[in-house]
Amino acid sequence: MPEFKAADFSADWLRLREAADARARASQLPDALMLAAASTWHDPERRFTEILDLGAGTGANLRYLAPRLGSGQRWRCIDQNPRLLAQLPHATAAWADRHDDPIQVELATARLRFAGPGWNGQAQTEQRDLALAPISTTAQHSSPQSPPFPLTLAVGSLVTASALLDLVSEAWLSALISHCQSAGCALLFALSYDGRSTLTPARPEDQAVNERVNQHQRGDKGFGPALGPTAPDAAESMVAAAGYRWRSAKSDWRIGPDEPELQQALIAGWVEATLELDPSARAWLLEWQRARQMQIKTGKLQIQVGHRDLMALPPERAKKRPQRRGVYPSRRPKRLAAQKPLNSD
Ligand SMILES: C[S@@+](CC[C@H](N)C(=O)[O-])C[C@H]1O[C@@H](n2cnc3c(N)ncnc32)[C@H](O)[C@@H]1O
Fold first, then answer.
1. Whether this model's pTM surpasses 0.85
2. From ligand 1's centre to the CA of 193, what distance in Å?
């Protein structure tokens, strides 16, 4: 979904889109991730050392994933915007109240604790500008040739983000994936915009709006020139090159007349982006917006916006060999040391 100015994300916008995001997401990917996690690595009570949610906002990704990730979850929800992070605990408590399952959310401590049927965990928020040049730490276990990255990753973590990859630059994403690979982290990136949008009924101006929005998406959102609609393809190429085993699936928004507020906000965002890029489009664009607003009022508009989700498992590492002290005293010690897996069970 097109996002315009990274600094401007409002809690209202994130609230408006949360249901459409949850409907759109490819639920088979977290399911496949958990299946792989259960059969290949880590204690079932704590499959991932940590779960890092990058660009967490008010916590929509946590609310979507927590019921799917089993027990012992430890979340770090990272965002540069303290106002959004401040809303995460209460938004999560309100979500728990509305949910069909009995979910408990404890707000009294510095860490948010949550529990539902068969899953539980805790979360803490962390204000951090992920685009900043490296602070004093680089990732633990990063290889000497890895580019610097402003985040410490615990070995065997899950690194996740929703609606973030289209905002970041190629260099930033490449550094993230390199560090994740070094630390044996699994990846789950949801809702990366892929450049497609379809409005029904169609109008002749739709394509011109889509082209300008996609161009606007490539502008700098704080991380350098943004990947915009190229984010899904770029992420897939990068994880493949890093040796990850990966799957992706479409997660298109389908927004119907029952969500007029979201439709309005989306059309307004597209108009703003188009005008910013091409002020000469004002006359026909405002006419287009008026026609679309009328269709929203009369319940006649359907909007589809293309997204893709990606799940990736770190390259398999050789199994740690059992120590047979005394039987093979010191055979080929260097080779054994080199084979020692980083994330062995
Ligand atoms: C489209 S919102 C998605 C929020 C949340 N993941 C969701 O799905 O509702 C993008 C988020 O990235 C955060 N963000 C943008 N630039 C950032 C940066 N440089 N460092 C940390 N967070 C950033 C924004 O504050 C915003 O919360």
1. yes
2. 14
